[in-house]
Inverse folding.
């Protein structure tokens, strides 16, 4: 996926090396929140928290932690209004906010929320603040609806981010401010190499897991489109669960029948796959006279998934390739099906070894490892490389650097579009991160674009909702090259908001998907 983690790149807060997981549930949640404020990501501290608890306490701890993070800045402002004097001790502030979360958002009984929070302050050796903590929580407990309304009235983001979103999305701003504070729905992608979406929905019904089928329709105006399949509207089907469910409760999940993937993220593979089919249809039409006496077009195609970890979009693309042989590996000519491509060579890169391991793990579960592909006699060669996308060269030392027919660039970004799933982002990100990330994105684009073949396509994807990383990045990129054409998405799209270049999904639409940006670029000349 992205090459950057959810940790900020500034050094103002240094991650603590040891997260002590003992004491009461609330103490452990407080310590986890402290670790996040000190620079650690939610992903790195959540499992240690949950694994340290008994089964009966995990649900409460998880809900308390995630809710406190989602309401963090609103609670901070409320706390400042309740205190007679500024509260500078971070541990005390965090403890009070944990108490406020229970009273205002979790409906924990007043006496339990106040007593246990005060006791937690003693456990973390801040007994001197118990009087203050007790007084503030008791004041709120007398009229929780009043203080809840006060919290909900405004946003719960750092001011710099709220200001930028106001600039970028003035019409949608109010909805964004409330939508980003809510939990995100859980979506599944059925592995269509094994089963249909409808078939997996039936399997979920049998397991008493309720899910709705969600269908996104896409289209774009591809140049010289000759392939009916490539030019037709693209249907992307996924499943939205009524309630988030542990994956071990999903039928055949361990055997690769489905993956957890946001609905808007499920657009990436179908979009680049359709663009690839169009390139091949144009290529085959131009090269029709080169087909030998055996009706075989001896060709191979090479595709790149850049910043591929953890491998969800790569796996989806492999599903489409593996289950779409009639349109990728064969083409209709004079009413007969003849081979179009003999082999597909896929390269996936990411710059962190642990993230590379996650790609291997995910592909193994879905039966898409290189060994699985060979056993199934697929004409697919998969190469996974740990490399920096700002400098990596797919051609190696070869003279020609024009290597790839299609590139999927799931670009590093600030991940502001997935704050609902990763609410620590609003704490960890800084205004400076946006500028640094945009520079990193540009470096990757400038390195990969020369490696795309003429007629090829690059799909640029982020899970950001900041225009600097998205449409403005594309506009700046196009000023540097005369051989790039931005492909227009057609009116057939039932998702996202049309931009000057590409389309932007916001995490506030009726389908419930995350914030994603898509732009498709076509290379017109060397």
């Amino acid at each position: 996926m992205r090459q950057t983690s959810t940790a900020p790149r500034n050094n103002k807060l240094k991650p603590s090396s040891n997260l002590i997981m003992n004491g009461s549930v609330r103490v452990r949640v407080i310590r986890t929140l402290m670790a996040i404020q000190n620079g650690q990501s939610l992903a790195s501290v959540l499992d240690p928290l949950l694994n340290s608890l008994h089964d009966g306490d995990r649900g409460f701890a998880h809900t308390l932690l995630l809710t406190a993070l989602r309401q963090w800045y609103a609670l901070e402002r409320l706390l400042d209004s309740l205190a007679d004097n500024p509260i500078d001790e971070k541990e005390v502030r965090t403890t009070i906010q944990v108490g406020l979360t229970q009273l205002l958002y979790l409906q924990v009984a007043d006496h339990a929320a106040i007593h246990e929070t005060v006791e937690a302050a003693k456990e973390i050796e801040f007994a001197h603040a118990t009087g203050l903590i007790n007084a503030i929580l008791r004041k709120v407990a007398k009229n929780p609806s009043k203080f809840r309304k006060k919290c909900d009235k405004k946003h719960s983001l750092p001011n710099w981010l709220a200001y930028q979103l106001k600039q970028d999305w003035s019409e949608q701003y109010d909805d964004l401010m409330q939508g980003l504070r809510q939990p995100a729905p859980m979506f599944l992608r059925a592995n269509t190499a094994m089963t249909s979406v409808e078939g997996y929905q039936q399997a979920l019904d049998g397991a008493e897991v309720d899910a709705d089928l969600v269908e996104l329709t896409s289209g774009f105006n591809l140049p010289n489109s000759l392939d009916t399949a490539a030019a037709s509207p693209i249907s992307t089907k996924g499943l939205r669960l009524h309630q988030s469910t542990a994956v071990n409760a999903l039928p055949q999940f361990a055997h690769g029948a489905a993956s957890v993937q946001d609905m808007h993220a499920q657009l990436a593979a179908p979009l680049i796959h359709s663009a690839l089919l169009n390139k091949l249809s144009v290529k085959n039409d131009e090269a029709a006279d080169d087909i030998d006496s055996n009706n075989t077009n001896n060709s191979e195609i090479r595709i790149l998934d850049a910043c591929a970890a953890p491998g969800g979009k790569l796996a989806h693309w492999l599903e489409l390739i593996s289950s779409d042989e009639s349109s990728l590996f064969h083409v209709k000519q004079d009413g007969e099906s003849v081979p179009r491509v003999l082999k597909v060579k896929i390269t996936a890169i990411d710059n962190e070894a642990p993230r590379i391991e996650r790609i291997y793990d995910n592909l193994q579960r879905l039966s898409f490892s290189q060994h699985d592909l060979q056993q199934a006699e697929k004409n697919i060669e998969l190469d996974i490389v740990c490399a920096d996308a700002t400098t990596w060269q797919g051609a190696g030392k070869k003279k020609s650097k024009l290597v790839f027919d299609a590139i999927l660039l799931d670009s590093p970004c600030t991940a502001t579009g997935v704050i609902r799933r990763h609410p620590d982002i609003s704490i960890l990100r800084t205004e400076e991160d946006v500028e640094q990330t945009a520079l990193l994105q540009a470096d990757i684009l400038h390195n990969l674009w020369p490696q795309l073949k003429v007629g090829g396509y690059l799909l640029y994807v982020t899970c950001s909702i900041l225009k600097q990383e998205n449409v403005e990045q594309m506009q700046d990129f196009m000023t540097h090259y005369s051989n790039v054409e931005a492909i227009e998405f057609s009116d057939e799209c039932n998702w996202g908001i049309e931009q000057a270049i590409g389309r932007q999904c916001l995490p506030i639409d009726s389908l419930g998907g995350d914030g994603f940006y898509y732009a498709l670029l076509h290379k017109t000349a060397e």
Notes: The chain has 20 helices and 15 strands. The CA atoms of residues 140 and 147 lie 7 Å apart.
